[in-house]
Amino acid sequence: MARLTFIMVISGLVVVADCTMFHLQPNTQKCLREEIHKNVLVSGEYDIQEAPGQKVDIQVTDSKGHHLYLREEAEGGKFMFNTDDYDVYEICFSSRVPPTQRGIQQEISIKTKHGVEAKTYESLGEAAKLKPLEVELKRLEDLSESIVQDFSYMRQREEEMRDTNESTNSRVLYLSLFSLCCLVGLATWQVLYLRKFFKAKKLIE
What we know:
With 205 residues, the protein is of the alpha+beta class. It has a domain at 18-118: Jelly Rolls (Sandwich). Helices cover 43% and strands 30% of the residues. It contains three helices and eight strands, in the order αββββββββαα. It has a four-stranded antiparallel beta sheet with strand order 1-8-3-6, with no helix packed on it. A hairpin with a 5-residue loop joins strand 4 (55-61) and strand 5 (67-71). The radius of gyration is 31 Å and the shape is elongated. 10% of the residues are buried. The chain crosses the membrane at residues 172-194.
């Protein structure tokens, strides 16, 4: 029981949810960007302040320009998608106001969730006829797997950064040795040239 309580406390500390609120000026666009890993479920819920005559479009895209969610004249809603690759994903809100109307700023709030927190375990439990405790254990199992994957990704990134650092150090060392050899060779050539020049001028023997 103590171990289960500890796991539940940990799960409460690693909730991946972002809630953002901002004001969108008339005929402008504002975007939110975030890097997300591969095969991660992302859900979002947004609410847009009503303004007569003004329209707001929302679109979710990746760095390649693929539309994962698109809705014109939105007032509020939800979206959900699964990431196909590690990429930068962008959520953009665009305001449109008729030329004959003077627009006002609109308040927009959006809440996004990633990974385990984006899954709807209640509906999953109802479909599979699971008890509440079984649903919670399933959520904790997915959360533990997500934590393991995050640590694995961090270890992989650390190895890549270490390899890059070692490669950079080796290249700098070789470049330094090459520069030193060039300087020594140039200095030797200058000494021999000056000695030959002074001998030709009979300044030295």
